[in-house]
Amino acid sequence: MDERIECDVLIAGSGAAGFATAITAAHHGLDVIMVEKESVFGGTTAFSAGVIWIPCNGHARRLGIVDSRADALTYLEHEIGNRLDRAKAEAFVDNGAAMLDFFERHSHVRYLLQTIPGLHAVGNDMASMMGGTYPGAGITIGPAMTFGYIAGRHLAGVAD
Ligand SMILES: Cc1cc2nc3c(=O)[nH]c(=O)nc-3n(C[C@H](O)[C@H](O)[C@H](O)COP(=O)(O)OP(=O)(O)OC[C@H]3O[C@@H](n4cnc5c(N)ncnc54)[C@H](O)[C@@H]3O)c2cc1C
Asked: Domain range for residue 62?
């Protein structure tokens, strides 16, 4: 096949990373093509609960749940130890809240605060090396659709 297709950004894979890149690039006026090797979109992301850990996010702030850049970096240092890439961790902590705002403003995805017991990343789990001092619920948030699914199963009496 000799057909030549041009684009500004070629994305391989249609999971969260691919779609996040595609939406951001398209929003900034770039011509995007996404390719997917499977017959359906979504990758592992489509099976996941979609729960994300975003320090210093606006949802938490609006409910008076306060963490800090220093808390978040300390938590990551405790969890990841000497494998932590400090520059990547700082980039994540410094840009996560803006990322969340961007997707809620420019896509249909909506997040809800939810206390999710037992998840290590929630931070308020006593098994966490911060011993429950990180204000986890609210920093860990999930997409509205996931919680709708969980609520529906609960109402239907389906076991977890
Ligand atoms: C049951 C379950 C629950 C989870 N829950 C959570 C959660 O609550 N919170 C959380 O943070 N994480 C969760 N995870 C982990 C999370 O889902 C993954 O870390 C995340 O989805 C990875 O996203 P990704 O975009 O990097 O990869 P994927 O979503 O796997 O996307 C990669 C895509 O690339 C495609 N691809 C690969 N190679 C090529 C190629 N050469 N050409 C074209 N396409 C290609 C694949 O087919 C795939 O569609 C969960 C995972 C599972 C399985």
From this structure: 50-155
